[in-house]
Design brief:
The structure is a single chain. Helices cover 17% and strands 32% of the residues. It is of the alpha+beta class. A hairpin with a 5-residue loop joins strand 1 and strand 2 (14-21). Helix 6 packs across helix 7 (404-413). The longest helix is centred in the C-terminal third of the chain and has 16 residues, at 385-400. It is globular and about 80 Å long. Mean pLDDT is 95; it is low at 1-18.
Length: 451
């Protein structure tokens, strides 16, 4: 559906019209990119400011890592243009629901195979047989050597799974259990059905590898999005849109090489792997390209802080988001508003009784006013966890116009530093005064999350 914009000529006569796409109240997304987030590429939409995005997302890391034609390490949705979002604004993304559709998946710790890539096994895969870059592949049989080059039939997966497992999920989405060799084989022989891979996905299903090193482990499911954010202002691989994985791009021997300054300027840190980015949470994302370009992917069935194995349970699923534009809220990276139960104990909103006791104590010592404050989590990324923490503190200091030393104190006594992904994604969470939240134009969003 379009709007017609009529144009007048010199005599004031109607001479032409331009077709303008009409923004959708609800936009359904089932298209994916080849792993490169490119601001010059056409986006889906637009979706209305205040509208809803519903997406069928593909599994994240391992499937794309086993598919050399996907050049970013992940297979995320095609970005969505949000009506009214301009560079220097922010977009509020409320996660209304997340539903796992996969019935099983496989995962494990990875080891790159040195003769099968140039510089970066996520971005520039080379067939060890014919030498072709980004070769197309087919799945032949099951097991570690199932991913074969379409040209020369050589085993061409750029990663080994040094210790892996196959996990089945209960139909209610509550529990996962790792299965043995026969169970893994059964799942591998019907791979796409068990993984429920979306029809437009091109990834090779990881369950085809049929790993079963760990058997009989039970795990609670609590799905979240490892990738949720806005498009960077320079083309980059999707899994590298963060300070830690992005460091692989610095001086890289391929066309997506960056300098450190370029990476800091252009990235939007959409690849967070923070387990608190789940149903009920809110993310405030920077707008660095017109329309923002919201993209989604890398859903996980469960994960502990750190994703210390490098990978977790990648699944397909259905996501519903509501988006809203915040004008003139310039951010360097995301701001996370987790569910209250996911906040550190010291950062949780205060109860009426706690506030009453604080006022009594303040009066005893002559303090005339107690701060009204609410919790905010500032995402920071970097090559290491220390660098990521420094990045989060600097971002908080700049956004709230507070000395870094004050941010450190507030994060110590009213919050916490929590790990999203090892080696370099953290959140700096602390209580921020209401007056400051109003000044930076995010008070209403924060209040709505925790009121």
């Amino acid at each position: 559906m379009t709007n017609e914009l009529h144009v007048l000529d010199k005599e004031g006569l109607e001479s032409d019209f331009i077709q303008q796409p009409q923004a959708a109240e609800t936009l359904f997304v089932n298209e994916f990119i080849d792993g490169i987030l490119d601001p010059s590429q056409e986006m889906l939409g637009p979706v209305k400011d205040g509208g809803t995005i519903i997406a069928n997302t593909t599994p994240g890391c391992w499937g794309p890592m086993l598919t050399p034609t996907i050049r970013g390490g992940h297979e995320v949705t095609k970005p969505v243009f949000v009506e009214g979002a301009e560079v220097g604004d922010a977009i509020v993304i409320k996660i209304k629901s997340i539903q796992v559709t996969s019935m099983a998946t496989s995962s494990g710790h990875d080891e790159p195979i040195t003769d099968r890539f140039i510089g970066d096994p996520f971005v520039s895969v080379k067939c060890p047989g014919c030498g072709k870059l980004h070769p197309s592949t087919v799945v032949k049989g099951i097991g570690p050597q199932a991913i074969r080059c379409s040209t020369c039939d050589t085993d061409t997966a750029p990663f080994n799974m040094t210790n892996g497992y196959t996990m089945a999920f209960d139909h209610k989405g509550h529990i996962g259990v790792t299965v043995g060799r026969e169970g893994a084989r059964r799942i591998a022989l019907d791979a796409k059905n068990y993984m429920r891979t979306p029809e437009n996905s091109i990834q090779n299903p990881v369950v085809a590898l049929a790993p079963s090193d760990i058997v009989g482990v039970m795990a609670r499911m609590r799905p979240f999005l490892g990738q949720l954010g806005t498009t960077p202002s320079k083309a980059m691989p999707d899994s590298h849109n963060a300070g830690d994985f992005g460091s692989f791009l610095i001086g890289a021997p391929h066309e997506y090489a960056f300098t450190q300054d370029e990476l800091d300027l252009h990235r939007t840190d959409g690849h967070m792997d923070i387990s608190r980015v789940r149903e009920g949470a809110t993310i405030i994302c920077p707008v660095k390209v017109p329309g923002g370009g919201i993209y989604i992917g890398d859903m996980h069935a469960m994960q502990g802080d750190g994703e210390i194995a490098g990978h977790t349970t990648d699944v397909a699923g259905i996501v519903q988001l509501q988006v809203h534009v915040l004008k003139k809220v310039a951010l360097e990276g995301p701001v996370l508003l987790p569910n209250e139960e996911d906040l550190p104990y010291t950062a949780k909103p205060f109860t009426k009784e706690e506030k009453r006791r604080a006022r009594e104590l303040a009066e005893e010592f002559g303090v005339k006013q107690i701060e009204e404050a609410l919790p905010v989590s500032i995402v920071g990324t970097g090559k290491t966890l220390n660098e990521a923490t420094d990045n989060a503190i600097r971002r908080a200091s700049k956004l709230f116009e507070l000395p870094e030393s004050e941010v450190l104190n507030r994060a110590t006594i009213t919050g916490s530093i929590e790990i999203g992904r090892h080696p370099g994604v953290v959140t700096a969470t602390f209580q921020v005064p209401k007056t400051i939240l109003k000044k930076v134009r995010i008070f209403k969003t924060v209040k709505k999350q925790y009121d």
